[in-house]
Amino acid sequence: MCGIIGYIGSRQALPIVLEGLRNLEYRGYDSAGIAISDGTTIRICKRAGKVAQLVTEIAHLSFPGTLGIGHTRWATHGEPTDINAHPHTDSNGRIVLIHNGIIENYTVLKARLEREGYHFRTETDTEVLAVFIGMLYDRLGDFELAVRTALQEIEGTFGLAIICTDDPDCLIAARRGSPIVLGIGDEEYIVASDASAIVSHTRRVVYLRDDEMAILRRNGYVTKTIGDEFVSPEIHELDFELEQIQRGNFPHFMLKEIFEQPSTFRDSIRGRLLLEEGNAKLGGLTAVADKLRAAKRIILTGCGTSWHSALVGEYIIEHLARLPVEVEYASELRYRNPVIYPDDIVIGISQSGETIDTLAALREAKLKGATILGIVNVVGSTIARETDAGVYLHAGPEIGVASTKAFTSQLAVLTLLGLYLGRQRDLSVSQGQHLARELSRIPQLIAAILDRSAEIESIAQEYAGCTNALYLGRGVNYPVALEGALKLKEISYIHAEGYPAAEMKHGPIALIDENMPVIFLATQDEIYEKIISNIQEVKARHGRIIAIATEGDRRIASLADHVITVPATHPLLTPMVTTIPLQLLAYYIAVARGCDVDKPRNLAKSVTVE
Ligand code: G6P
Fold first, then answer.
1. Can 2 be counted among the known catalytic residues?
2. Could you confirm whether 46 is annotated as catalytic?
3. How many CB atoms lie within 10 A of CB 40?
C-alpha cells in the first residue's frame, strides 16, 4: 500500500527520496510524487504510473534542497491520476504533505472549508487535510500548532510527512493506524512508512505510536502526542541487512524469496525446537505460559496468505494439542460481535504486522478480555507491539507482494506452537520427538524440491495460456490448495479456485473439460485413496491433471498428465513441502505471461486501510 519517505539533513534530498521510493515500490502503488524544499520554495512533481516514469520526468529538471518528501500512492479516493497523486498542498502552496490512510470525516471537513471559500483541485481526502492545515496555519501562524490542531479533528487513519515553505528547517511526521518509522542519523533524519527505505542510511530507528508526531529539525528532534505531551523516544536497532532487501542475482524478489525458504524456515525454528524433549521453546510466550496452559480454545485470525496458514494451523494444533481451534478472516471477526471468552487465546497471524483488519480483530478480542498473541514477521510492527505476547517468524524482509517465505515460516511457528500446546496436553514424548525430528528435516526437503525447479518451469510453459485453474486438496492440504490458487491468481491474473477435493462434486466439476488444469495435492496419507478417486473423476471428464505426489508414487503417474514429486514427511507437515511446487508453478506461469510478478496490478504488500 502507499509508501512514505522524507528527508531532512545536509545532503541533497532528491536522490535519497528517489532511492526511498524505489525501496517502497514493493508495497504496491499506482502513482508517485516528490516535493523538495530549497529553503525558499518547494518544487513538486507527481505522476500516475511507476517511479521510473517520475524519474524520467524530472531528469532534466533541477530539484536542489536538503529537505524533501516522496510518496507512492495506492488509490483509495479518486483515480490514480497525476493530479490525485501526492504530495498535496494547501490553497497557497505553503503546506505540502503526503499521506497514507484514509481521512474518514473528509466530506464534512471539505464542506466546511468550501463554505469558507476554499477550493479543491482533486478528489482526494488528502487534499482536504492539506487545505485544512493551511487554513489553521493562516489563523494560528505556527506550523506545528496548525498540524497538531488539525490532527485532533481528524477521524480515520494517517501516516503523514509534512513540510512548510515558511519553515525550511522542519519536517513533521505523524501517525494513527498507518506506520511511520523515524531513521535517526547524524544530524539528519529519514521518515518512512517502513524500515526498508531507511536501512541503507541508518540502523537506529524510532517507531511512532498512534496519535504521536515527530518534529524533526537538522539539529534535533522531539516526539510528542498530537495533544502536545512530550514522549520520550525509544530507539531500536534494525535487525536486517541491506542485502536482504536487494534482489541479488535473482530476476524477481519472489523467486529469491522462494529460494530462501530452506534458510528462512531454519531461522524460524532455530533455537526453538527441543528434539530430545519432543517439545518447542517459544521465549516470546513466556509471559502468557499460564494462560496457554489454561486455554480452552484458540482462535486464529489473519488475512490473505496468513489466513491460509491459520487454516493449516487449525489442523496441526487440533491434532497435536486436542484443543479446539477456530479460524476466522480478521475482517469478519472484527465486525460480527464474536463470542470471545476471557480464557480464549486469539492469535493474529501477519507477515507485516500492520494489516488493519488483523489489528482491529485483535483489539476487539482484547476488549472482550481474551489474551491476544501475534505471529508476525516484521519486528517492531504494530501487531507485535500491541499484543500480550507473540512469536516472530525471523524470515527476514519479504518484498514480493505475493507471500511465500512468510507462509512457510508461519507454518513452522504454528507447528512449534502445536508441539508446545500438545506436550502440555495429550502428546506423548515419543510422538513429540518424531514430529520435532521431521520438522527439523523440512529445510532440506524444501531444498531438494527447489533443485528441481527446471522441471516445474517446463510444466508451467504448457499452462501459461490457460484462463482457469482448479486446485484440490484434502485435510491439511486443503488450505494449501487455497494458497496455490491465490498465488496463481494474484501474480498471473488467471482465474483460479481452491477447493476441498471432495467438494468438487458439488459444483466445480461442472467446469471440468479438456481446457481445465486441475492441480491435485495427492501426497500419501490416510486420505490418499479418496484423492485418487477424485483424480479419476476429473480424468473421466478429460481435465488436465497436475499431481503433487509423494516421491516413489507410481500409481499416480498412470492417472496424471504431470506429476511433481515431493519428499515424504510426517503427514501433518506435508503443507511445508507441497506448497513449494505451487509457488514455483505460479511464478513460472506468471513470468511466461509477461506479468510484473513482484508488483501485481491493484495489489498491495501491506493493507493498512479497510
Ligand atoms: C496483502 C498481501 C498478501 C498478504 C495479506 C495479509 O493482501 O498482498 O500477500 O497475505 O495482505 O498480509 P499480512 O502482512 O497481514 O500477512
1. yes
2. no
3. 9
